[in-house]
Amino acid sequence: MNTLVKRSDVAKLAGVSEATVSRVLNNVGPIREETKNKVLQAAKALNYQPNSIAQCFARGKSGNIGVIVPSFPKVHMLSTYYFSEILSGIGRRLGESNYSLLLVFQPPDQPKNYVQLFQSQKIDGCIILGAKNHESDKEALIHLHHLDLPFIVVNQTYLDYPFHTIDAEHYEGSYKAVSYLINKGFRNIAFVNGSNDFSNSSERFAAYKDALKKAGIEPMENWIFQGNYSRSSGIKIAKEIAPLIPQLDAIFAANDRMAIGLMQGLSELGYKVGKDFALIGYDDSDIASMVNPPLTSVKVPLFDMGKIAAEKIIQMLNHEITEQIHIRLPVTLKERASCCKQIT
Amino acid sequence: MNTLVKRSDVAKLAGVSEATVSRVLNNVGPIREETKNKVLQAAKALNYQPNSIAQCFARGKSGNIGVIVPSFPKVHMLSTYYFSEILSGIGRRLGESNYSLLLVFQPPDQPKNYVQLFQSQKIDGCIILGAKNHESDKEALIHLHHLDLPFIVVNQTYLDYPFHTIDAEHYEGSYKAVSYLINKGFRNIAFVNGSNDFSNSSERFAAYKDALKKAGIEPMENWIFQGNYSRSSGIKIAKEIAPLIPQLDAIFAANDRMAIGLMQGLSELGYKVGKDFALIGYDDSDIASMVNPPLTSVKVPLFDMGKIAAEKIIQMLNHEITEQIHIRLPVTLKERASCCKQIT
Description:
alpha/beta; Rossmann fold; six-stranded mixed β-sheet; 3 domains; homodimer; 434 Repressor (Amino-terminal Domain); DNA-binding (chains A, B); elongated; six-stranded parallel β-sheet; 41% helix; 16% strand; 12 helices
C-alpha cells in the first residue's frame, strides 16, 4: 500500500539513469541543462522528496540535535517546570532551523555513552541537561571534548574543564534572596538546598553564607537542610524544620518545588507561610504565582537558557564558534506575599 | 581531531576488504568462519560502532518515532502538564526500546506535511498530539492513512475515520463531575469549556447537559462559557462569571489551568472558592493539590496514554497490529476541598 515515490520512479519518468537523477538532485558533476530540466520536472511531477537519510548519510550528518535528559523510573522528569522550560526553549530555536530535536533519556545508573550517539550518527550535536559533578559525568564530557564533538552543558559549570556552558547567575540570585530577607528584618534564616552534585547548589550555599556573614550573622549548622529538588523532599524536611519555627524567621529554598513542599508540610503541622515564617523559593516556576500566599521566588530564565544553548550548538555546527562559551544569564527576584511574618 | 573509527580502519586491521567488513557486520552472504572472527576481533579492538544511519539507510529506517507537538509563538507548550505528561509517558516506553524520540513542532498555520517526515526518512512512525477536528488536520491524517504509514492520535477521536487512537473516557469523567456537584446539593452549575475543535471538549459538553437533564435541571445558555484551556482565559472568564455568582452554586471547568485562572480571577473580585462557590477542574494536574483550597479534579491518565501510544506504535512497526486501535482509558474523580459552598 505504501506508495512513496522512489528515485527510480523519477529516473523512469525522465528517461535517464538513477545515477543521473542523483547527480542532478545533489548538484554534483557536469550535467547538460536539458537533462537537468527533465529530471527536475519529473521530480516535481511525482512530488519526489529526496531521502534525507540518504542525503545526511552522504554528508555524514543526521540533521538531529540530541538533548540528554536524566531519566528516573518513578519521576516524570519532563513534567517538572525546570526541564520542560529548558526543552521548550531548545525546541523554539530548533523549530526555526533545519535541525530536529532528538530526546535522549539517560538513566543515572547507565553508562553515559554520548560519543556513541555521534559515532552511530544519531546526532550532529548535543545539549546536556542534568549533568552533575560526578566522575562518570565528567568522564563522559571529557570524552566528547577530546573528540572535538559539538556539545554544550546547560545549568552546570565545571570550573576545571573548558566545556561550553550556559548557566545562570545563581550566586548573585541567592545572595539577593537572602539579603532581601535580611533587609526585611529577618535574621534567623534557614536554608533548604538541593544536592551538592550540582554547581548551582554549591553556588547557592556559598551565597547564603556570604550574605548572612555580610550582615554580621553567623550561619547555624543545624539550620541548613538538604533535599533533592522534589516537592516530597520539601514535605519531608518540613517535619525537621517545624520544631525550629518559633526561633526561625524565614526559609530560603533552592527551588519552588521544595518551597511548596515546605509550605504544605508546615501547614499540616499548623505553621502558615506569611504568618509564622517567611519563605523564598527559586526558579519562579508557574506554580509560584498560583499558590496561596503567592511565593516570592528568584526567576531563572530557563527558557532563554535552552534557546541560547540551541543557538550556540547551531553556531558550532556552522564552525562559527572559536572560543569557549561560558554564558551566565542574570536572575531576578520576584516579590510576592510569602515573605512576611507576623510580629508577635 | 575527530578520531571516530571507520569501517576502513576495521578492514585494514583485519586485512580484508571493506565490503567483507560490511557483510560480516550485517550478517549477509556466506563468509568463512575464520574471516568472520578476524573482522569481529578487529571491530572489537578498535571499539568500532557500526554507523546506525548506514544501517537504517540499508533497511530504509530511521530508528526514530516522531511526536508531533503543536507550537505557538508565545506559549511554552511543553511546560503545560498536559503535554509534558503525555511526552513523559511516550519517553518512558521508547526509552525501553531501540527507538529514539524525535520531537516535531507543528505551528498551527503551517502545512501539516507529516507524510514528508516519512518520505524523508526522519521517522518510522508517528504519535500525533493536539490534533483538532479541523479539515487541515483530518486531511493530513487521511493522507498518512491512505499511504498505510504507522501513526496514532492521542486524546482526539474522529468518529468518521478509522484512525488508531488512544483517548480517555471524557464523557464519563465529565458526567461524574457534574453528578458529584448535583449530589452535593448544587443545582446552579456553570460550565467553562475549551475549544470545540477537540472531541474531548464536545464530550464534556454533552455530559454536562446530560447530567443536568438527568437531575431534572434545564441547562442555561448563559451559564456556558468557552476558554482556550489557558489560565489567562480562566482569568478573563472570571469577569463574566462574577455577576452571576450570587445565583451560581458551582463551576465545572474543562481543565485545571482554566479552573485556577477562575479561582484567581474571582478571588480578585472578592469571591472565594469553597466559600462563595464550588469548583471542579479537569486533568488532575500537579497544581491541583498545591492550590488553596486544593482543587477537586477529574484525573486523566495522560502519562499512561503516552506510554500506550508508544507501545502501540512499536507493535505497528513490528506488524503485530491487525485491527483498528481505539483505546479509551478510564478517568477518576479526585475529591478535594474546592467543592464546598457556605449556605447563607
